Amino acid sequence: MKRQAEAKLPTEWGQYQIIAYSDNENDWMPHLAMISENTNLNQTVNIRIHSECITGDLFHSKRCDCGKQLDAAMKYIHENGGILLYLRQEGRNIGIINKLKAYNLQDQGLNTAEANIELGFPADARDFKIAVEILEDLGITSINLLTNNPEKISYISESSIKLVKRIPLEINPEKENLDYLKTKKDYFGHLLNNI
Asked: Residues 126, 127, 137, 179: which is the catalytic one?
C-alpha cells in the first residue's frame, strides 16, 4: 500500500491534510489519513482508527454510534492535534449490501455479530494492520489511541508503534442503538462504562 494522492482539506473541524492510500492509483475506495494542521508527527500523536460506516457516518443512523464517534474524534483531533485514519471496511468489512442484509436479520432478533455469522462472514472481518502500515509510512512511532475496541489496542501493541495511552471515545447510548452497544461490550469486549 502506498500514497496515491494528497491535498489540503478545510473542514468544520479545521484544516487537514488528507492522504489517500491504496495498492494502485485507480482504486476508487482508498483508505484515508486526515492529519490535523496542529499535529507534530515527531511527538506522540493522537490517533483515531475509524472503519467506514456509510449509514452512521454519512446518514447519521441511530442503529450504531459510528457517526457520533467520528464527529467526536474529529472534534478531539482538531482541539488536540492528531490523525484520523479512515479505513474502507464497511460493515465490519462485509460491504454495504451485506450490511443491509445483516440489518434485516437484526430486525428479526439477531445481534450484529450473529447476523454477520448467519450471512457466512466472521463476526468482525476488519483488518487493522492497514492502520499500522499507514502510521509507519507517516513515520509515527508513538501514539495515543482514541478507542474503546481492545482489538485495535492489540494490533498497535503487537506492532512497531508504541501505544502510550488509550483515550476512551464513549457515546451516550440511545434506545435505537442500546442493543448494538451491549453487543459491542458483551460479545466483542469493548471498553464501555456507560452501558
From this structure: 126
